[in-house]
């Protein structure tokens, strides 16, 4: 019994000494970080966890799509400036058109003035011509009256010979200016065909 108790006491002392030694070592190493031993299983688990996180991140983040940059919004007041420029441009175009129309109107007015001047000249010329025609007609009337008087005083045969030598229209006028008796005598001395033509002219003249 005594031997067994002694043996137990020795084991207890050894155990206490070992515990004290361990405590001293732990106290001396306080504050130090002791890495946890890495086993194959823990490494595989950590790798699988990291791969899962990366896969999740890849699945959750959509692929970047490149596109053209969106147009920038106009600066404040930029739209008003564009409108003003457009209005000024249209005003210039309208001014050019108005100037063109003005020049065209002036050209037409000038042409009208020229035409009016030409018309006035033509009217003046026509008036002169009409006056000359009237003078000529008056002279012809005087001349025809004189011829009629002269032919009427001649023997009918002589007057008929002269009548045949002048223009038919003048002959008709000369015979028309005579008395019917004198004209009849002269027509009787003229060849029948010409006398018929002159007689028809005298009828139309009346």
Main beta sheet strand tally, sense and closure:
none
Oligomer: single chain
Structural class: mainly alpha
Give helix % range.
over 70%
Instruction: Specify the CATH class of the domain at 82-205.
Output: Mainly Alpha
Coiled coil: 84-142
Keywords: Coiled coil, Membrane, Transmembrane, Transmembrane helix
Biased composition (Polar residues): 47-64
Protein name: Magnesium transporter MgtE intracellular domain-containing protein
Provide key terms for this protein.
206 residues; mainly alpha; Annexin V, domain 1; 80% helix; 0% strand; rod-shaped; membrane; transmembrane; transmembrane helix; Magnesium transporter MgtE intracellular domain-containing protein
How would you describe this structure to a colleague?
80% of the residues lie in helices and 0% in strands. The protein is mostly helical. The chain has a domain at 82-205: Annexin V, domain 1. The chain is rod-shaped.
């Amino acid at each position: 019994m005594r031997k067994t108790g002694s043996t137990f006491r020795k084991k207890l002392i050894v155990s206490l000494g070992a515990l004290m030694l361990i405590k001293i070592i732990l106290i001396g190493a306080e504050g130090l970080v002791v890495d946890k031993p890495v086993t194959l299983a823990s490494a595989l688990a950590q790798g699988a966890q990291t791969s899962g996180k990366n896969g999740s991140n890849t699945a959750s983040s959509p692929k970047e799509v490149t596109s053209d940059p969106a147009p920038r919004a106009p600066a404040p007041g930029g739209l008003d400036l564009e409108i003003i420029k457009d209005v000024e441009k249209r005003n210039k175009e309208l001014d050019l058109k108005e100037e063109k129309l003005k020049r065209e109107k002036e050209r037409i007015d000038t042409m009208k003035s020229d035409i009016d001047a030409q018309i006035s000249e033509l009217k003046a010329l026509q008036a002169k011509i009409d006056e000359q025609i009237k003078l000529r007609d008056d002279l012809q009337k005087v001349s025809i009256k004189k011829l009629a008087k002269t032919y009427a005083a001649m023997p009918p045969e002589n007057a008929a010979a002269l009548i045949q030598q002048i223009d038919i229209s003048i002959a008709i006028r000369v015979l028309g200016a005579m008395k019917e008796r004198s004209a009849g005598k002269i027509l009787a001395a003229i060849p029948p065909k010409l006398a018929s033509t002159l007689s028809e002219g005298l009828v139309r003249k009346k």
